[in-house]
Amino acid sequence: MSEADHKLQIRIVPVTPLQQNCSLVWHTETKRALLVDPGGDIDRLQGALDQFDLTLTRIWLTHGHFDHAGAAAELRERTGVAVEGPHRDDQFWLDQIEDGAARYGVEGLQNVTPDRYFEDGETLDFEGVSFTVLHTPGHTPGHVVIANTDLKIAFVGDVLFAGSIGRTDFPRGDHAQLVQSITTKLWPLGPDITFVPGHGPASTFGRERQINPFVADRLTGYGGAETTPPDAGAQRTSKRYS
């Protein structure tokens, strides 16, 4: 782990009535910050930046659902900071932010077109620390995960949760593809990776490989275990976009 890695701090700022986990990441010396998935409640996000005397320099999106991307356009207008991500295949969701928010009774969110899209395998730099982008379709077609294996952290959006996985009953969702994204893109990062999901508590990949009723090794066959496919119909279908 580099010296720069040790100087990063992370705080979770829940936003919108759906309590989406927006991640505030900053460098303790430069006081520059990034927001991963600023879904709404922009005044709350600005308050968190002000609390730690931070300057926002990056906005990263994992996917296009309103509770993850709804404040990105206004943040860009206020700060001049570019919006980056997700993969271009989620633009149709970014174009529906206002409609989606209205269906859930959430006001003040805006459609957004990113300044650039992420590509699978690319490296992102934040204050000398490198993060890797992994294209992980299934929940949405353009979903990405952003990870740093030295820090042992991954921002997984709505791909994976503690004890569950993302919904696939939205347009262009695909259960089999989501399971494949998790097992072929996330598990190889290592069992000791702590992940920040879009909703709910953090967990580790190793724990989910043991106990998750949708993607545990005994179900998926990852690592050579015998497999019984999980029941897609049992997948949680709450009001969340997750």
List descriptors.
single chain; 242 residues; alpha+beta; Metallo-beta-lactamase, Chain A; six-stranded mixed sheet; five-stranded mixed sheet; 25% strand; globular
Question: What's the SSE blueprint?
Answer:
Layout: H1 3-6, E1 8-15, E2 20-27, E3 32-36, H2 42-51, E4 55-60, H3 66-69, H4 72-79, E5 83-84, H5 91-94, H6 97-103, E6 123-126, E7 129-135, E8 144-148, E9 153-157, E10 160-161, E11 164-165, H7 175-186, E12 194-197, E13 203-204, H8 205-211, H9 217-220
Parallel strand pairs: 3-4, 4-5, 9-12
Antiparallel strand pairs: 1-2, 2-3, 6-7, 7-8, 8-9, 10-11, 12-13
Distance between the termini: 32 Å
Choose one word for the global shape: globular
Mean pLDDT over all positions: 92
CATH-level-4 superfamily name: Ribonuclease Z/Hydroxyacylglutathione hydrolase-like
Structural class: alpha+beta
Note down, in words, how this protein is organized.
About 6% of the residues have low confidence. The radius of gyration is 17 Å and the shape is globular. It has one domain: Ribonuclease Z/Hydroxyacylglutathione hydrolase-like (Metallo-beta-lactamase, Chain A, 4-Layer Sandwich), CATH 3.60.15. A six-stranded mixed sheet has the order 6-7-8-9-12-13. It has a five-stranded mixed sheet with strand order 1-2-3-4-5. A hairpin with a 2-residue loop joins strand 10 and strand 11. By secondary structure, the protein is an alpha+beta fold.
